[in-house]
Amino acid sequence: MLKILKYSIVDLLRSRWSYVYFAFYLLLGYVLLFLNNDINKAVITLMNIIIVLTPLIGTIFGVMYYYNSKEFTELLLAQPIKRSTIFIGQYLGISLSLTLSLLLGLGIPFVVYGLFKSAAIFDFSLLILVGAFLNFIFVALAFNIALSNENKIKGFGFAILMWLFLAVIYDGIFMISLMMFNEYPLDKFSLFATMLNPIDLSRILILLKLDISALLGYTGAVFKDFFGTNLGAILSLLVLCFWVAIPLLRINMKLKKKDF
Amino acid sequence: MIEIKKLHKKFGKLTVLDGLDLTINQGGIFAILGPNGSGKTTLIKSILGMVVPNKGEILLDNKSVLKKWNYRNDINYLPQIANFPANLSVKELIAMVKNLRPKPSNEEELIQLFGLSPFLKKKLGNLSGGTKQKVNLVLTFMFDSDLIILDEPTTGLDPIALIHLKNLINKEKEKGKTILITTHIMSLVDEIADEIVFLLDGKIYFKGSVIALKKQTEQDNLEHAIANLISKQYA
Predict the structure, then answer these.
(1) Domains in chain A: how many in total?
(2) d(CA B76, CA B80)
(3) pLDDT by residue (tens digit) across B212-223?
(4) Whether the predicted interface score ipTM is above 0.90
């Protein structure tokens, strides 16, 4: 597996897109720090961007890599290597190189700006951690979609739709349902519904830690009320782990029956 | 020795292999022929474990290979379409495949043979189709395995490379290896194949030597003999 991992990372590190992504974060970091002129405020702005953008990039990279390396994967499949080793290796390769771009792209400007001397270092680390989780989750979801769809266009379509649903539409439906059924006690329901969306979950995790009640929104408020800050954070991290593990298990199951 | 027993494979509603039985003894060149979509590639990929059959058994040297992966160390496979990661150089790709297969290899000799030395440092994405196919051939022939499977090996090759390929195949045969080839180039089959395995409707329709086939179909030209077999499908 380490061999496959190494080669997909080398392959990705040479691709132009990894650098575009890295440069984008670098630019974003500098611009945010310049505009906010304060690390704490920059971290909050950054959160809103990371939570929407990392899933999108993870999804697109995942699907694109899968379809682009299809013939190469076939070459690997004819070698004496286990199927799951090949795909998990590739999966880790993409997720790790995306996380590296995120870490370096944002890390450099913040460190230059004096992150280590600031109190925001924990918040910043949490932000990167959540960004890494979102990378791993959405690349895994993208692999699931790509494995189930032979047709490239269809696969891309479903993947973008999934991102759109989780990043935008889900919240909309959530709000509407809360308004429609506001006569009923919905605390439990909204808690549960938050767990079902890794993007919402990440947002709440960060906001709980940053302790900005104004930005918590309804779900966040319920969450905080129910669990308190620490338990809530631990619980949401745990659920994020599930969000990585379950798609990975499905990849493994799908691989056993898949024809190449 | 390859033994295939009652192999079934369906893709959705389309039945590709329908209870196929085939035994191939060690040593010799076997041409797997058949009309488009007759299941040649599916058969090969089932042997390699890339396609999962619905029913049936595949034995290599009396050992079942289904759901296993170690046995692939003893098979050299040339895929139909040569497409490699565009960001790797030829040299790196060869090093990588060598790294993945723990056995001795003689890539230097093959690189010389196909004149690939000037391309070693080039990125695979910048190579022409024929050159990629040559790289593909190097990757296939650089290991010493008892079973060699070639899926359309002649695609995009220039005449000189083609002659080299034929020599290579014959050399491997002399070492007592089993070589399976699918191709649509009948002259190649006529020239090198010891036996023909003809697939039709997911079954083996004919298995025997080129001479036996010509005799059975009462044709003295292989191309016509094969056309004769295929035309029965349309009749």
Answers:
(1) 1
(2) 13
(3) 888 888 888 888
(4) no
